[in-house]
Amino acid sequence: MTINSIKFYLLLGINLLMLGTLSLNAWIAYNDALHELDEIYDAELARSAKLISLLLTSRTLSDNIGQPVVVAVPHITDMGESLTVQQERLLDGHKYEGKIAFQAQQGDKLVMLSENALQFPTPIREAGYHEITEHGSLWITFSYFVPNHNLWVFTAQREDIREELGAHIARAQVRPILFMMLPLSLLIYVVIKLVLRPLQLLQQQVANKTPEQLHEIKLALPDELQPVQEAINSLLLRIRSYLEQEKRFISDASHELRTPLSILQLHAQNLSSATDPVEITEAADAIVEGSKRMSHLVNQLLSIARLDHLEAVSFNQVALTPLLHQCLAQLPPLLLDKVSWQLQLDDNCQLHGDNALLQSVMRNLLDNAAKYSPADGTVEVHTGFTDQQTIRICISNSGTVDTETSRLGDRFYRHQQHQQQDGAGLGLSIVKHIVVLHHGSISFAVNNRNGLDVVLQLPAVSDV
């Protein structure tokens, strides 16, 4: 078990909490017991004083012959704690007798006292409890006055009796804590290990995963670990989907690159064996066109790869109308002249996004709209506000739509009848990815001119 582990911190925390709680309870019980002992001994002093006063006042004090009555105190050697209670009771008294004393005075005359009070200093003639020191020992005294007989009775008890009993109580409180800490700690360790067992099983399941084995984890876990298992399964599902997507992308890219490479190789062979200038020119032109197509495909593949690893977009204010004019100016002249362009633009539209990425979106959509329109067809571009937070951009063309709109945007998807068109079927996939990064949406629908409507919903600047 390492120091930086949940098990260690749980064990340490619970043990410290248990030790602190038990110690606090022991301290409170110890102080409560001392308080009760003080009350008992104080009551005993008061009762003894009143008994002595009753004894003395019940007889004629003048019967004394002038000498005080001295009550003997047995001198018993303190043998420590080696004797039991029963053994101590067999002796001629008790070792604590030497620590209890009393005096009785009528006026200034001693009437009665205990033997160990002979050397006492003058007691305090003030009713109540007091503290005096005699031969280095602290005594707790009680002064009691009987006014009818002018009698003072003083009872005293050494403080170390209370300290000794307090030490007994403290040991009685601490001893169970010391004896129970180790077995309780071991029991807590076993319980923690059993409780954390499901977490260890989950860790083993995750550690044993390989890229080829990303199936879901199904363990009977406690309620607290169920969300963790669900989150891990969700992550595994996304990883599996991502890996499958990457495999499919690599396969499709390899397929798409294989065709232009084969064509380039064929034309290169023709060029190497051609002797006719016309054939040489045709082969060279074919190689140039094939190189352009492959360069375009590679650039799109790189764009897809960059977008797949792009987690955040740098959002700025982008004026939509200048952006569309700039994208139209970048189109090939043949596409610009192929169709009639009808623009209905709201100059107040300000997009919230990345200028370069939005330019790629508009350029791809305008290029496709013109490319898949018939000669002398029409492409319409409408912009406006859907609400204060959203801008709607609709790009429509005319022609004959013979493709599945639900599949538009899939990588490398191209309808069979469009295979003669330049491209690899990656443009709309790039567009969809960029729109998602901008928290927008894109939809495709057939319009009443049998063309295609592409509708974009993108955040406006007011959404910042």
Automatic annotation (TrEMBL):
<dbReference type="InterPro" id="IPR005467">
    <property type="entry name" value="His_kinase_dom"/>
</dbReference>
<keyword id="KW-0808">Transferase</keyword>
<keyword id="KW-0547">Nucleotide-binding</keyword>
<feature type="domain" description="Histidine kinase">
    <location>
        <begin position="252"/>
        <end position="462"/>
    </location>
</feature>
<keyword id="KW-0472">Membrane</keyword>
<dbReference type="Pfam" id="PF00512">
    <property type="entry name" value="HisKA"/>
</dbReference>
<keyword id="KW-0902">Two-component regulatory system</keyword>
<keyword id="KW-1133">Transmembrane helix</keyword>
<dbReference type="InterPro" id="IPR050428">
    <property type="entry name" value="TCS_sensor_his_kinase"/>
</dbReference>
<keyword id="KW-0812">Transmembrane</keyword>
<dbReference type="InterPro" id="IPR003594">
    <property type="entry name" value="HATPase_dom"/>
</dbReference>
<keyword id="KW-0067">ATP-binding</keyword>
<protein>
    <recommendedName>
        <fullName>histidine kinase</fullName>
        <ecNumber>2.7.13.3</ecNumber>
    </recommendedName>
</protein>
<dbReference type="InterPro" id="IPR003661">
    <property type="entry name" value="HisK_dim/P_dom"/>
</dbReference>
<dbReference type="Pfam" id="PF02518">
    <property type="entry name" value="HATPase_c"/>
</dbReference>
<keyword id="KW-0418">Kinase</keyword>
<keyword id="KW-0597">Phosphoprotein</keyword>
<feature type="transmembrane region" description="Helical">
    <location>
        <begin position="6"/>
        <end position="30"/>
    </location>
</feature>
